[in-house]
Amino acid sequence: MGxxxxxxxxxxxxxxxxxxxxxEVLVVHGKGQHSEAGRPQIKPAVRAWCDHHPEVVASWREAxxxxxxxxxxxxxxxxx
Length: 80
Known about the structure:
The chain contains two helices and three strands, in the order H-E-H-E-E. It is of the alpha+beta class. The model has no long low-confidence stretch (mean pLDDT 92).
């Protein structure tokens, strides 16, 4: 899946979880080890999206190692 499609699905899912009152979501974005040009694309885009959408994301943190570590984040959603 390309970056645009991944981000579209990511945003749709987070907003759906938010509407349903979900407080916390584990987002597995991977480490980007198989990205074109050898640089992660989805990981930084997901983290930047969270930083720039405070109406949806109250906070986020890297997932604990046994939940995916640097390949995932735990997102706290802002409940309207």
